[in-house]
């Protein structure tokens, strides 16, 4: 690739952003020399490498890349036998540690967690994560933990060796400390004695070189026996080493020389260990640089909200909602651009400052970024191909020194492009044909585009020439595009519209700026009729397009709303089905419990009935039977549904206000027909004859039938009523019956009495023990035919009878 076109597309600014993401100088060196690749498989591998590193950063968080140093020079010197200083060995140690941590983290499923200042690797049981490129690099790193620990234990800082570096060094330093203490003790005795105090300038101990001295007044030089090592600037003070500590200072000097020799030996030993793995350390350095580079690309991708484009080998691309990476994220307008499928040349027209140049630069920059292995800031589904060359003629490169005009400078670049272009190239022109006579510029621009087409290259260009718009409309493999212009605000929206030629809007913009109206109108007269017609057509297309876009946007909103409602509906159905299944399961469980309890109760009752057969006393037997009956009623009462819950529909279409005897009705939930025998409009209840059955039902459960009852049914009903009226007495005698038999008899009697139309009847139960009377009275409270009842009065039978009023 010809790198002179890279700066035109501002690739160097992307390289600078990438360099800021690197953690080491090694990574920055790779980035500094980064250039787009033309090999499909190399580009694909580099993009996948970026994606893997991006995924690791997103899923695992921070990756420790600190401590990576350029140690090639140190290791080579060590291999040749040179002794490395502490600072160099520390850099080697840091790089070894970085290699070990990165290998542990990236070659396996491990996450780094930080506790205080320490980083700890924690195993992750996630077999689905697989990063073959990054893991392959990490697993190729050599680990030298023993050498790393030896250096770390021996060297504290760039100027300090640890006491634990060797036992000999520890002993020597202990002796040095002891000797220092002895010397200081001797000197303290001297400076604190009354004899020497008058000779000393100050009662302090000083150092000159590596010798202990005391400050003595110069006039007492002959009094203090010792060696002069220094004097003050004024000459008033001499720094003398007393003869009594000379030997001790000499011993201290010897110990320090031995310390230096031992340190040299330790450094030599560590250097020898580093030299023995020189080749492996250099290999690690290259791998670490590559890993740092990969994660730099990943960090840039995350900061740009970028994605890996789908790479194709079909010489086409589709950028979906691409955003120029050098513009502000919150302000840049996303655009979709595609080339290579339906057309190979795209001509973008529209007003100045409308975003044409930004769009074509974005296309060229995305192509370069892709071929550098970088992600592009676009939406998923974007696809890019690999070009052998990317040419760009953008901007004014006129040169006074080379005597080149604007047109000449453009043509110089265009000549170079036409000589090198191939079917695998991308060509970008900005203001093609500008800088010369418009008619000649138009003709020349069309000829250049035809030459690029013949070469088979993809081309994207901007222009203001109407002839080029017509050319794009006429040619099959060429397409128009425009940058949108808001006619209401007379300002660009920076949105690209493919398939529509754009207007320059020169007259509208000039009018907005303040150019006089008559000048604009006069200018329009100089336009040819063809140009005016084309502009009017374009304006009509633009209006229709805006309307269609609005309608499509509304359709999309409705589509999303429908999809949302569909999801909500399906969710409710699923929830209802789950609730239904649970309720059925609970009902089955409850039914099983009821059946089981009923079975147990039945067996108990059967057993008690068998025992009752043995009881001779009728009263006791009747009392026990009545007790069992009540128990059964209580047990069944909680299980039996109410009449209203069975017969009253949940949704009533029309409320009945009044019913009359003889009316035909439908019982809605039972799907049966009936005839009203009697009704109560206040209570909203009616006695209904259904076949041979009579039921007291609420009005809510009934629906007035439109058809008349069949004549044979009416005759039959009237016949039964007349028969009952003539045969049914106004009293029933229950004496000698037990309670159960009496209730059955009274129930049948009241049905017949009600049908016969009796208003009041007498129930004869006698005095007895009172069980029969009490049981009958309790039962009458619940009977549907009994409107009211009372004890008999004198002359009616007294307490031995009960008078019942029939509804």
UniProtKB/TrEMBL annotation:
Keyword Hydrolase carried by entry: yes
UniProt cross-references to CDD domains, sorted A to Z: ABC_MutS2, ATP-synt_Fo_b
Record key words, sorted: ATP-binding, Coiled coil, DNA-binding, Endonuclease, Hydrolase, Nuclease, Nucleotide-binding, RNA-binding, rRNA-binding
Domain Smr, residue spans: 732-807
UniProt-annotated binding residues for ATP: 350-357
Name of one Pfam family that matches: MSSS
Entry coiled-coil feature ranges: 538-622
Enzyme class per UniProt: hydrolase
Entry GO MF terms: endonuclease activity
EC number: 3.1.-.-, 3.6.4.-
Alphabetized Gene3D superfamilies for the sequence: 3.30.1370.110, P-loop containing nucleotide triphosphate hydrolases (3.40.50.300)
Membrane-spanning intervals of the chain: none
Keyword DNA-binding in record: yes
InterPro entries assigned to the protein according to its UniProt record, in alphabetical order: DNA_mismatch_repair_MutS_C, DNA_mismatch_repair_MutS_core, DNA_mismatch_repair_MutS_sf, MSSS, MutS, MutS2, P-loop_NTPase, Smr_dom
Domain of life: Bacteria
Subunit structure of this chain's protein: Homodimer. Binds to stalled ribosomes, contacting rRNA.
Assigned protein family: Belongs to the DNA mismatch repair MutS family. MutS2 subfamily.
Annotated function: Endonuclease that is involved in the suppression of homologous recombination and thus may have a key role in the control of bacterial genetic diversity.
Protein's name in the database: Endonuclease MutS2
Organism of origin: Peptostreptococcus equinus
Top-level taxonomy: Bacteria, Bacillati, Bacillota, Clostridia, Peptostreptococcales
Gene: mutS2
């Amino acid at each position: 690739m010809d790198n002179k076109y890279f700066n035109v597309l501002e690739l160097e600014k992307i390289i600078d952003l990438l360099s800021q993401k690197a953690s080491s100088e090694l990574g920055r060196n790779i980035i500094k020399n980064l250039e787009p690749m033309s090999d499909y498989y190399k580009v694909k591998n580099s993009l996948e490498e970026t994606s893997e590193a991006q995924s690791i950063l997103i899923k695992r968080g921070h990756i420790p890349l600190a401590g990576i140093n350029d140690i090639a020079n140190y290791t080579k010197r060590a291999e040749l036998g040179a002794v490395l200083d502490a600072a160099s060995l520390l850099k080697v140690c840091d790089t070894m540690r970085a290699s070990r941590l990165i290998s542990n983290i990236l070659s396996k499923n491990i996450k780094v967690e930080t506790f205080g200042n320490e980083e700890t690797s924690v195993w992750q049981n996630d077999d689905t994560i697989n990063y073959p490129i990054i893991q392959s690099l990490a697993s190729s790193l050599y680990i030298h933990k023993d050498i790393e620990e030896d250096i770390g234990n021996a060297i504290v800082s760039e100027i300090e060796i640890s006491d634990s570096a060797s036992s000999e060094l520890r002993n020597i330093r202990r002796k040095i400390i002891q000797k220092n203490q002895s010397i200081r003790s001797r000197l303290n005795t001297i400076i604190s004695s009354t004899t020497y105090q008058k000779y000393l300038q100050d009662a302090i101990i000083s150092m000159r070189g590596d010798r202990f001295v005391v400050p003595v007044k110069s006039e007492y030089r002959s009094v203090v026996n010792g060696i002069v090592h220094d004097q003050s600037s004024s000459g008033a003070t001499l720094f003398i080493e007393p003869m009594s500590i000379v030997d001790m200072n000499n011993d201290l000097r010897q110990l320090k020389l031995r310390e230096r020799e031992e340190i040299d030996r330790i450094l030599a030993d560590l250097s020898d260990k580093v030299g023995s793995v020189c080749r492996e350390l250099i290999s690690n350095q290259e791998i670490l640089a590559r890993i740092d580079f990969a994660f730099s690309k990943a960090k840039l991708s995350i900061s740009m909200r970028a994605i890996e484009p789908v790479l194709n080998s079909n010489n086409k691309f589709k950028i979906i909602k691409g955003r120029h990476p050098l513009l502000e994220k919150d302000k840049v307008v996303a655009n979709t651009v595609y080339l290579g499928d339906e057309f190979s040349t795209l001509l973008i027209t529209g007003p100045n400052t409308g975003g044409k140049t930004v769009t074509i630069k974005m296309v060229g920059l995305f192509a370069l970024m892709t071929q550098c292995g970088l992600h592009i800031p676009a939406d998923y589904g974007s696809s890019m191909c690999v070009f052998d060359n990317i040419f760009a003629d953008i901007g004014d490169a006129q040169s006074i020194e080379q005597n080149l005009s604007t047109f000449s400078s453009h043509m110089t670049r265009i000549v170079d492009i036409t000589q090198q272009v191939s079917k695998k190239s991308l060509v970008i022109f900005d203001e093609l044909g500008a800088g010369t006579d418009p008619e000649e510029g138009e003709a020349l621009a069309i000829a250049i585009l035809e030459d690029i087409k013949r070469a088979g290259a993809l081309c994207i260009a901007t222009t203001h020439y109407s002839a080029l718009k017509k050319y794009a409309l006429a040619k099959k493999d060429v397409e128009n595009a425009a940058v949108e212009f808001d006619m209401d605000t007379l300002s660009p929206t920076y949105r690209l519209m493919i398939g529509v030629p754009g207007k320059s809007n020169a007259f509208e913009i000039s009018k907005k700026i303040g150019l006089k109206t008559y000048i604009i109108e006069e200018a329009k007269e100089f336009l040819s009729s063809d140009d005016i017609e084309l502009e009017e057509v374009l304006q009509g297309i633009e209006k229709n397009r805006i309307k269609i876009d609005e309608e499509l946007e509304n359709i999309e909103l409705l589509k999303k709303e429908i999809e949302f409602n569909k999801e909500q509906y399906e969710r409710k159905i699923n929830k209802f089905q789950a609730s239904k299944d649970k309720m059925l399961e609970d009902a089955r469980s409850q039914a099983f419990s009821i059946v089981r309890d009923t079975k147990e109760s039945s067996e108990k009752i059967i057993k008690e009935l068998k025992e009752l057969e043995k009881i001779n006393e009728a009263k006791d037997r009747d009392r026990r039977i009545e007790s069992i009956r009540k128990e059964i009623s209580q047990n069944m009462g909680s299980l039996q549904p109410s009449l209203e819950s069975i017969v009253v529909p949940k949704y009533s279409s029309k409320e009945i206000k009044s019913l009359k005897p003889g009316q035909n009705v439908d019982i809605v939930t039972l799907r049966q027909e009936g005839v009203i025998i009697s009704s109560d409009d206040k209570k909203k209840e009616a006695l209904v004859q259904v076949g041979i059955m009579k039921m007291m039902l609420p009005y809510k459960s009934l629906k007035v039938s439109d058809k008349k009852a069949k004549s044979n049914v009416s005759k039959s009903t009237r016949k039964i009523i007349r028969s009952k009226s003539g045969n049914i007495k106004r009293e029933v005698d229950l004496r000698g019956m037990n309670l159960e038999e009496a209730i059955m008899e009274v129930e049948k009697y009241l049905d017949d009495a009600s049908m016969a139309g009796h208003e009041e009847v007498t129930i004869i139960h006698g005095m007895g023990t009172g069980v029969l009377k009490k049981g009958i009275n309790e039962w009458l409270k619940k009977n549907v035919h009994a409107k009211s009842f009372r004890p008999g009065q004198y002359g009616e039978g007294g307490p031995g009878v009960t008078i019942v009023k029939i509804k």
